[in-house]
What we know:
- By secondary structure, this protein is α+β, with helices and mostly antiparallel strands.
- Helices cover 26% and strands 38% of the residues.
- The strands form 2 sheets. Strands 2, 3, 5, 6, 7 and 8 form a 6-stranded antiparallel beta sheet that branches.
- Strand 6 and strand 7 form a beta hairpin.
Amino acid sequence: MSTVFNSPEEILAAVGKPLGTSEWLTMTQARIDRFADATDDHQWIHVDPQRAQAGPFGATIAHGWLTLSLVARFLPQIVEVRGMRMGVNYGADKVRFPAPVRVGSRIRGRGELIAAQPTQDGAVQATIRVTVEIEGQAKPACVADVLSRYYF
């Protein structure tokens, strides 16, 4: 379920509230390999299933940066802002990777609006904490405070 905002006022009034969750996504070796190719990060823990099986996690794991990049997939499923002219990814304040995402795991994003304020250029800047959960695990894969600017 996602949260829908229809105005800047609705965003500002929702600080401190949960926004919902995205759909589950299965982490595949093909996705990990494509990310490794895109970033030139071919460390064996990510791309060598045989060697990784004997490693500390018992399987290959997704790159932390891959997990973070999937926030761009999860966020539109968590929150919808209607009536805006434009939305801008403004960055992130804090990112942590508490637990690895093993190949075959299912992950999803859970959002919470932790701050919102008007900007000098007429937008509303929202800080959304996206927690990337791993199905069946207590620790999340990633916690990121992402900044979005919404221009109405």
